[in-house]
Amino acid sequence: xxxxxxxxxxxxxxxxxxxxxxxxxxxxxxxxxxxxxxxxxxxxxxxxxxxxxxxxxxxxxxxxxxxxxxxxxxxxxxxxxxxxxxxxxxxxxxxxxxxxxxxxxxxxxxxxxxxxxxxxxxxxxxxxxxxxxxxxxxxxxxxxxxxxxxx
Length: 151
Hints:
Layout: H1 3-12, E1 33-36, H2 38-51, E2 57-66, E3 69-78, H3 92-104, E4 110-117, H4 127-139, E5 143-149
Parallel strand pairs: 1-3, 4-5
Antiparallel strand pairs: 2-3, 2-4
């Protein structure tokens, strides 16, 4: 199941008050465990803060351990043209070049997801975010971890 399908299932099943299912209904646990290394987290924070007031975007490297576990070990920043409210789609040429360099250096990680910032706007998924996730998930098994958050 792609990351977008997981997000859609989560939002589709959010009936009841304040997005919670009624208390009588059984809830299927489909949550994922995401482990983010200190290195990856620090790089995301540094990248996000450096971009203020513009949004920034990057790809996360790691592995899908199993159906419910993702391990993120590193990230790399993506060049993009962003405004205060949106980040344009992934630069596929840059992404391909980065993945080629990873192979040349013998790194075993794969791209497992993406991140970006919403400086000053809080945490939420915009229509552009959802579209980006759909496009990326269609071509690769990507997940969006944490959505876009204010730094």
